Every structure is written in C-alpha cells, then in structure tokens.
Amino acid sequence: MKSLHLVPVLLSATLALFSTSCSRQSTAPAAAVASDEPPVQGQASVADNESQKDIVKVAVGSPDHTTLVTAVQAAGLVDVLASTGPFTVFAPTNAAFDKLPAGTVATLLKPANKEKLRDILQYHVAVAVYRPEMLKNGMTLNMASGDNVSITVKDGKIVLNGTAVVVGSVTAANGIVHVIDGVILPPAAK
Predict the structure, then answer these.
(1) Running DSSP on this structure, what letter comes out for residue 145?
(2) C-alpha 70: how far from its chain's center?
(3) Rounded Cα gap, residues 79 and 149, in angstroms
(4) Rounded to the nearest 5 degrees, what angle is found at the Cα of 132, between the Cα atoms of 129 and 135?
(5) Would residue 167 count as lying in a domain?
(6) What is the DSSP letter of 49?
(7) Is residue 175 part of a domain?
(8) What is the pTM assigned to this prediction?
C-alpha cells in the first residue's frame, strides 16, 4: 500500500521538473557545434568479433564478393542487410557480375542509378530464411523488390529463374547467403 502513496509524489515531481525545463527554453537559435567525433552510423558499424557474422560481414569477408559489397554500399543497403533480418541473400560472385554486358556494373554504381541498383539488389533478397533443403523444384519466392523468383532443381542443383545456380551456402547471424554464379534481373517494369 505504501507504493500507492508514492505515485502522487512521483507524479508531482515529474510535472515540476518538466514545467521547469520547458520554461527555460531559449528562443535563440542553437549554434552549430563542430565535433571531431565520427557521425553516428547504423548496425553495420558495430564492432563485434565474437558473434556469428551477419550477412554483410560474410560478404565483406569473401574475396569473391567485392563487386557485390561495392554495389550494396552504393545502394545504401548495408545497414538494412546488417539488421536483424531474417534474410536469404542470393549473392552473385564477381565472376557473375563479369558476365553482364560491358559497362553495366559501372553504370549501375553511378548515383543517378541508385534506385535501379537497389531494385536489382533487392531482387536478390528474400525476407525469410530459406536453407538449401527448403528450396524445392517449382517453388516461387517473393523477393524484397516485390517481384518473384522461380526455383528449379536440376540434377540436384538449385537454379534461380533458369539461369543462376546456387554453388554454395553460408549461414549468417541474420539469415543465410547462397552464393550464385549469375546475376538475376527483375522483370521489366510493366
């Protein structure tokens, strides 16, 4: 019962503190403060060498995915893919990007093409975890871009949209990365 008597006291103290701080507000504009501290960054900037790597750290640690990492950075998707997830990322290798027509990657990395690049990259991400044994012939996955990817299984190999083959998989703290040998492109806008 004593705790009920404290409620009005705490409420009164909170209101008094609030009204005092509100009455002291300055009408002068705040001066810009220079700081040598780096700007606050998102989840991807958290240093953690103890836990299992998230999807971004898996990609960064792979010498075969430097083009993908550059593209994810240019598209502003690093913090998204470092967040809790869960995600399934179909990660094209550098060799997969090399199969695209000459100049395609350089063009997509330009700031003017950021939205197109984001759309292509999001077409490689499902917001769920699909382990290899879960990917069945005839299955359709809805991707983060809003479009669908079709799964076929040929000779025990998982194939996306009939073109990109899953050549390996790596479990991450926030999902799974399936390494693929081709870049899958979303359907043309209707």
Answers:
(1) T
(2) 13
(3) 24
(4) 80
(5) yes
(6) S
(7) yes
(8) 0.73
